[in-house]
Fold this protein.
Amino acid sequence: MNTRPAPIYLDKLLARLELAGRSTVVRHQGSDLSGEALRAMIFQYARVLYDVGITRGKLVAMFAPNRPEAIAIRYAAHILGAGAVYLSVPPTEEQRQALLKQMAPDLLVVFPETIHYWHANAGVRLATVGVDCAASCGRLDVLASSASDTRLDVMAWPEDLAVIISSGGTTGVPKGSCRSFAAYTAMVSVPSPSDRRQLVNGHLAYLSQVLVDITLLGGGCVVLEGAFEAADTLATIEAERITDLFLVEPQLFELMDHPDVCCRNLSSLRTLTHIGASAPQTLRLRARERLGPVIAHTYGASEMGIVSMLTPAEHDLSRPDLFTCAGRILPGVEVRFRLKDGSLGEPGDIGSIEVRSPAMASGYRNRPELEAANFKAGWYCSGDLGRLDSDGYLHILGRAADASEVNGILVTPTLIQEVLCGLSSVRCAVVVIDNEARVTIAAVSAWTGLSIGAETCRQAVAEHFGQETAASLVVVSLDRIPLTEQGKPNRAAIKALARSRSLVDAA
């Protein structure tokens, strides 16, 4: 085996694990995994993967639950110079099979929690962890238990495919954003304190995998939980002395409104970062008031990584205007704004956001037409509408495709959400454009004991955006906003609910 010409993130990570020795680096369901134990597991799985044909340039896919074996297998693939992808889980079997076909992995790994996502006609070699079935490559955990755990050289080269990060795919087959080892190394090479205790209760397919790597690279500890649940999350923060937590915004809102917020000791928490949807100012202020000076907000996507951040220190209650922005652009990231006529905007102009950075993806896995439409001359075209203010803060106004100008007034779902969340009866709201029905849908959730009148919502929208915009508003009152596997608002489900209720009303 030949060694590669330049170091990658995994070199530092393996050195960190060796330095950690018997200290805990991963905690899962009450059990501790030391640095030396995780390092040994990685080398054992690397030998097993090599024996089943995984070498440089191959791709290992996983329907992966939040467990140490999934993390070790990904690192093991990287030692061999192979790429890895944690697959998202689209809602239908047809979409899952299409996702597998698009990714075209050389090996699929499933676990007891995820074996039901595998289909016998998938046309890909199968291996399992923790479960017996007719897998062509057998049980990797059983094979690894008798494999040598002695050190292996890292075979990956900087330009090799390292990671594919899957999108949620709520409107179809998810996209897979590809990064080389060089780009992924840039993505995870950010400062992280050695006493960091990162709670990971989101799906590994998304940003969670990046948080795992950042934490371990800094010498910290990752606490793995199977999924997000507000009461359990608050209890875990207290019991495990969690310092860092990442949530998509609907999860943040559920956490901050949970009654246990008042009775749990959250003093260990240093940073609670939220991302993934358009958070109204009203809700962000409530999060800061209820959870304290730990809130951070980032803007980014699987294709472009993290673009900007509003730090906990900048979540200053004396500056409520800052709670409308996505913070300052991070060092090394370039942002520009494309106007409707195709020209580039000047500072302060509203335009479609384009991003370039060392950590961004190179394109999509086996989606050439989509890649050509979104990755242009080294820039990623986000499709998000935004502007940069005079103080250097980035403001996200929503999807450009959903924005309109009505009687000279800019109207976006994000701006309508802010108006609705300002109503005293509304706990949270999600606004979705249904172009087919030519309506704007407002899914609203009320405070306990209160109700939300559709006419009240339309009146508030009319006061800000005019009667024409209010007239197209369909209000759907829900006890709970439907969410995707990622925890983001499920826009397809919201549209379906609105249409079904309209049919019932018409009948």
Notes: The two ends are 70 Å apart (CA to CA). The chain has a mean pLDDT of 94. The first strand starts at residue 24 and ends at 28. The CA atoms of residues 52 and 137 lie 7 Å apart.
